Amino acid sequence: MDKIFIHALKTEAIIGIFDWERQVKQTVVIDIEIGADVRKAALSDSIEDTLNYKRVAKRVLSFVEASQFHLVETLAEHIAMLLLEEFGIAWVGIVLTKPGAVRSSRDVGVALERDRSRLDEWRAASRRTP
C-alpha cells in the first residue's frame, strides 16, 4: 500500500483535564499517514488523481483549533474519523503529541490506526454519547 503523509502539523487547541488547561490553548503536533494508491496520479501527474494533502491539512487544522477535548486520545480518534468520512480514504494513521505535557519529557501522545470498517461503529457510538 502506498501512503501519503503529513508530518509535524502543529497547531493550538484547548486540550487537557486540569482547570488551567481548559483556559489556555496548548500546542499539539499531528502526524498523519493515509493509505492510498498513487499509481494513477503518478502516471497522470494530475492533482485530480490523488488526495490533496493541502486540503487534508487545512481541514485538520480547522477542526483541531475549534476543538475542546480533554484527552489526546479523543482528539486523535475524532481526527481519524473525520478524515475517513470526509475524504473517503480507506485507512489512516494518526500520531498526536502534546509537547511539554510531562516534565522531563519532550512530549506525550497517542498513535492510532483506523480504517473504514470502524465508521459505522463510530457513528453508532457517537449517537449514544451525550
Average of pLDDT: 93
Radius of gyration: 16 Å
Spatial strand sequence of the major β-sheet: 3-1-2-4-5
State the shape: globular
Structural class: alpha+beta
Count the helices. How many? 4
- Indicate the low-confidence ranges by residue numbers: none
Along the chain, the helix and strand elements come as EEHHEHEEH
Task: Tell me the layout of helices and strands.
Blueprint (H helix, E strand, L loop, with lengths): L1 E14 L10 E11 L2 H6 L8 H14 L1 E2 L2 H16 L3 E9 L7 E9 L3 H10 L2
Parallel strand pairs: 1-3
Antiparallel strand pairs: 1-2, 2-4, 4-5
Helix pairs in contact: 2-3
Provide structural commentary:
This protein is α+β, with helices and mostly antiparallel strands and 130 residues long. The chain has helices spanning 39-44, 53-66, 72-87, 119-128; strands at residues 2-15, 26-36, 68-69, 91-99, 107-115. Helix 2 (53-66) crosses helix 3. It contains four helices and five strands, in the order ββααβαββα. The radius of gyration is 16 Å and the shape is globular. A five-stranded mixed sheet has the order 3-1-2-4-5.
